[in-house]
Amino acid sequence: MSKIIAIANQKGGVGKTTTSVNLGAGLATLGKRVLLVDIDPQGNTTSGVGINKADVENCIYNILIDDIPPHEAILETKIDGLNIIPATIQLAGAEIELVSTISRELRLKKALGLVKKNYDYIIIDCPPSLGILTINSLTAADSVIIPIQCEYYALEGLSQLLNTVRLVQKNLNPHLQIEGVLLTMLDARTNLGIQVIEEVKKYFQEKVYRTIIPRNIRLSEAPSHGQSIITYDRRSKGAEVYYELAKEVLSYE
Ligand code: ADP
Ligand code: MG
């Protein structure tokens, strides 16, 4: 059984890309076949697994707009079992171009349906907006992981995200579930983090992952080396917690 998980939150900088890359790498290292789908025009997941965007021939844009078969855009990464559909800046035009396309919300779902059987997990890294690209992702997904940064205003904006999830459930994908809520970038030296954890747990209850991602400098260094934390520094705290998260995600299979 394969599962498609969207990593979504319209706030930027909450750890969507870090989680996509490192959860993907963690699951692949645990023996799962994983496809990352970069659907953010910034393409940080693409460069984060060591792909030079200038060399990308086909990206998610060509799948969504030009209707190319998805396997023509899939690339291998340095990690065994971890593939990616890359994004380049070309994707920035897609929000507008999709507006006039037939069944514009269903394009990613249709494409991933063609390769789903080849993977245990497909992880979609969403852009920081609730536009048509995120809607495509939520429509294609079985479930959504919501990363929340342990900071002031952590819950701000979440009602819009949850509203979008409900709208997608109602109109496009009744079977969409919340896979889990992931607390990220916890600074263990402050009380604030503890307060945010309590607040988020009160709100999402058993949906909150036991694994909490702390701030870890190695996690922020890895992308500039085009590596997941697992290849960049396997002994770091960052690698340890993303492994834990991968195991926790597997335990809810
Ligand atoms: P998003 O995709 O939601 O915009 P990112 O995953 O790109 O967020 O994270 C934003 C920034 O914070 C990046 O520079 C990333 O390297 C850094 N970062 C993410 N998670 C951590 C962490 N746990 N510890 C330290 N830095 C982190
Ligand atoms: Mg990102």
TrEMBL record:
It catalyses: ATP + H2O = ADP + phosphate + H(+). InterPro entries: AAA_dom, DNA_Partitioning_ATPase, P-loop_NTPase. SUPFAM superfamilies: P-loop containing nucleoside triphosphate hydrolases. Residues 2-178 form the AAA domain. Gene3D superfamilies: P-loop containing nucleotide triphosphate hydrolases. Belongs to the ParA family. Dimerizes in the presence of ATP but not ADP; ATP-binding is required for double-stranded (ds)DNA-binding. Interacts with DnaA. This is Sporulation initiation inhibitor protein Soj. It comes from Paenibacillus durus (Paenibacillus azotofixans).
